[in-house]
Amino acid sequence: MSKTTAISYHKDGSFTRPDSIFRNVVSRDPNAEFPAEPGRYALYVNVACPWAHRTLIIRKLKGLESLIDVYHVHPIAGPDGWYFSGQGDSPSEDPLHPGFTTLKQLYLKADPTYIGRYTVPVLWDRKQDVMVNNESSEILRMLASEFDHLLPETQREGNKPGGGLYPEHLRAEIDALSDQIYHTLNNGVYKVGFAKSQEAYDANIGPLFSTLDELEARLEHKPYLHGESLTESDIRLYTTLARFDAAYNPVMMSTRKTIRHDYPRLHSWLRRLYWDVDGIFNNAFRGTTAPFSLYTQCYANGRQKIVLGPDAPLIVPDLPGEEVLVPRLIA
Ligand SMILES: N[C@@H](CCC(=O)N[C@@H](CS)C(=O)NCC(=O)O)C(=O)O
């Protein structure tokens, strides 16, 4: 099957996100096409990207750092999209394909007929030299469960309090909440911030804040979205809330409220994950969160490119730092 997808971001002024195309799975089954093996897979990420952020969180939360490599592209796109810059954490070329300087080259190596967006995250199989998957929700799930036999007992899902990140008895509830969070928040902030018509903006801003209001109420009697323990839904919400006051509110026009001023329970939930005061998350949240000012800068850049146009001035708003956005929690 030829892997093609629409490149266009907009339909009638509304931002649309095409489906990811590479959808293979890594499995704990040693006979699978992509069996979980130490050192075999690598993740390509952009530290500013919330979808890639999901995969960085789960890699650290599970303690998979020595089993799965990470390669960073430059956080701000070049003329050909994501590229390796040799600056900060980004190598000057693709470590697995010397000479490749863009993610586009990696996608075309995976499929020379590919026409579509060159998105992060990408999970790459070094052994067969192929792209396994470029859909963050699926990579999140694979990394959460399929490498467990390579990890110490305490890191395995079945041995986690509450039955792990995606326990059988909560699956329907987690899927339903993830779906709502995806449409109104994870992707909702893009539908608002990248709207190209007042109608598209108006249609999406209400559902975004209704979901935040609902989640605020939901946390009244429980520390995490589904009860006493962290689940997949918390990870999926975190990547959006960590960027909310730094980027989605000031740059992407989700201006009605901020997390730190208007949502005390969500704010305290965010600070708890971020600071990991009980040391139960292997610093997976703060340790994978970029400097907040980078989020501001990257979204200002993205909105200029996608909505305002290259001739518009690039203005990056001034914002407070970590000490105001997520004040430190002491154990
Ligand atoms: N559904 C994908 C979406 C990934 C995605 O859209 N990533 C953005 C960065 S935040 C990207 O790479 N965009 C490049 C482009 O649109 O050309 C996932 O969740 O993995």
Order of helices and strands: EEEHEHEEHHHHHHHHH
Helix content: 25-40%
- The CATH architecture classification of the largest domain is Up-down Bundle
Instruction: Give the distinct bound molecules.
Output: glutathione
Mean pLDDT: 95
Task: From the 3D structure, determine the CATH topology of the largest domain.
Answer: Glutathione S-transferase Yfyf (Class Pi), Chain A, domain 2
Give me the Rg, rounded. Answer: 19 Å
Largest sheet: 4 strands, mixed
Shape: globular
Binned strand content = 5-15%
Count of all domains: 2
Number of strands: 6
- Which regions are unreliable across 5 or more consecutive residues at pLDDT < 50? 1-6
CATH class term of the largest domain: Mainly Alpha
Order of adjacent strands in the largest pleated sheet: 4-3-5-6
Contiguous helical run count: 11
